[in-house]
């Protein structure tokens, strides 16, 4: 499947959501029932037993470092992002106080932002803003720079044209982002570039391209303030796709989504490791505890490697939802 199909597959699902939820609505009180359902105000009111997920999840207060090889448990819906509309492609600022994601909560798919005081409290549903009103074509899959003052996002106009990566910035967190410019040294005419991820030091952009025929992960380094130079991160000649890259702060772990042999259904989350940030990544393994029978996409990993934000489908209607998983400490 092309990266364009991946982008528009989600865009179509987001655009098809019929329920619009006001930004200030509070989610329903959670209840324990057998099947996942949606409350009248858009809140999830039951658990997704099929995926083994609790109702909601918010970060625990800092308890010291986690163990890198421990599983991501517990996991659950991200508190403060529970609505009947689709939510997908979560990205955060380095301190985890700013969340950007794609949603259909007000109708057409668009990018929204929520802020909180610290990583130890939920995102308040009433703080949503849209600072990415950057033209007639809504942005998608926004990746924030480490300070939250710059961003790279995917822009497309229709399934008949290719998708490109765009760059935008702003002077401070109280104003919207400036008109965007295309990353000319990253985009390739007639090909799809999408699913950006900016490393936590801001020095490298990871993204997906179908320039060899199969969607694969590439990287571009920042030189003189500009992302330039494209290189394959995994085996670009492989017939197996790799999408939705997420890099650990030390550069030694790469999470991504793929529909490789051994998945539980759809795309599962995989992780590849390397001994140094200059070494190639080794063979990838599936993150078993995050695998469901539907598509799962990693979005962002905390600097300490303890918390992974991702999106997957939930409920009988198969809506996209943002989840949080934490490593056992």
Number of strands: 20
The coarse silhouette is globular
- Per CATH, which architecture? 6 Propeller
**Helical stretch tally:** 1
Number of domains: 1
Under the CATH scheme, which class? Mainly Beta
Question: Kindly, what is the distance between the CA atoms of the first and last residues, rounded to a whole number of angstroms?
Answer: 38 Å
Q: What helical percentage do the residues reach?
A: under 10%
Question: Structural class of the helix and strand makeup?
Answer: mainly beta
Evaluate the radius of gyration: 18 Å
Mean pLDDT value: 77
Task: Note the run of SSEs as H and E.
Answer: HEEEEEEEEEEEEEEEEEEEE
Approximate strand percentage: 25-35%
Strands ordered across the widest β-sheet: 1-2-20-19-18
CATH superfamily heading? TolB, C-terminal domain
How does the SSE layout of this entry go?
Elements: H1 3-15, E1 56-57, E2 72-78, E3 87-92, E4 98-103, E5 110-115, E6 140-144, E7 150-155, E8 164-169, E9 181-182, E10 193-198, E11 204-209, E12 216-223, E13 226-232, E14 243-247, E15 253-258, E16 268-273, E17 285-286, E18 296-301, E19 307-314, E20 319-327
Parallel strand pairs: 1-2
Antiparallel strand pairs: 2-20, 3-4, 4-5, 6-7, 7-8, 8-9, 10-11, 11-12, 12-13, 14-15, 15-16, 16-17, 18-19, 19-20
Structure write-up:
This protein is mostly beta strands. The protein has a single domain (3-327), classed as TolB, C-terminal domain (Neuraminidase, 6 Propeller). The protein has one helix and 20 strands. It has one helix at residues 3-15, and strands at 56-57, 72-78, 87-92, 98-103, 110-115, 140-144, 150-155, 164-169, 181-182, 193-198, 204-209, 216-223, 226-232, 243-247, 253-258, 268-273, 285-286, 296-301, 307-314, 319-327. Strands 1-2-20-19-18 form a five-stranded mixed beta sheet, with no helix packed on it. Strands 6-7-8-9 form a four-stranded antiparallel beta sheet, with no helix packed on it.
């Amino acid at each position: 499947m092309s990266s364009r199909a991946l982008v528009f597959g989600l865009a179509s699902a987001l655009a098809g959501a019929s329920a619009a939820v006001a930004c200030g609505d509070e989610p329903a009180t959670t209840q324990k029932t057998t099947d996942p359902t949606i409350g009248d105000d858009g809140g999830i009111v039951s658990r997704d037993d099929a995926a083994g997920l609790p109702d909601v999840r918010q970060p625990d207060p800092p308890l010291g470092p986690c163990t890198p090889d421990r599983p991501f448990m517990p996991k659950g819906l991200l508190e403060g992002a529970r609505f009947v509309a689709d939510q997908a492609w979560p990205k955060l600022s380095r301190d985890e106080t700013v969340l950007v994601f794609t949603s259909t909560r007000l109708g057409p798919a668009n990018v929204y932002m929520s802020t909180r005081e610290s990583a130890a409290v939920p995102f308040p549903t009433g703080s949503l803003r849209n600072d990415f009103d950057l033209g007639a074509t809504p942005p998608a899959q926004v990746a924030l720079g480490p300070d939250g003052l710059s961003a790279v996002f995917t822009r497309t106009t229709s399934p008949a044209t290719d998708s490109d990566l765009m760059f935008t910035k702003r002077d401070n967190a109280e104003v919207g982002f400036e008109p965007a410019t295309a990353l000319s040294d990253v985009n390739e005419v007639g090909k799809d570039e999408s699913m950006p991820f900016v490393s936590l030091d801001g020095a490298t952009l990871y993204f997906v391209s179908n320039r060899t025929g199969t969607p694969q992960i590439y990287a571009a380094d920042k030189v003189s303030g500009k992302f330039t130079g494209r290189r394959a991160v995994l085996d670009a000649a492989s017939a197996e796709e790799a999408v939705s890259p997420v890099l650990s702060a030390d550069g030694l772990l790469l999470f991504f989504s793929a529909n490789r042999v051994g998945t539980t259904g759809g795309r599962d989350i995989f992780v590849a490791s390397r001994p140094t940030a200059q070494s190639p990544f080794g063979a990838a393994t599936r993150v078993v505890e995050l695998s469901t029978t539907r598509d799962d996409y990693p979005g962002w990993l905390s600097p300490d490697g303890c918390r992974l934000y991702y999106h997957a489908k939930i409920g009988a209607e198969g809506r996209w939802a943002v989840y949080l998983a934490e490593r056992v400490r």
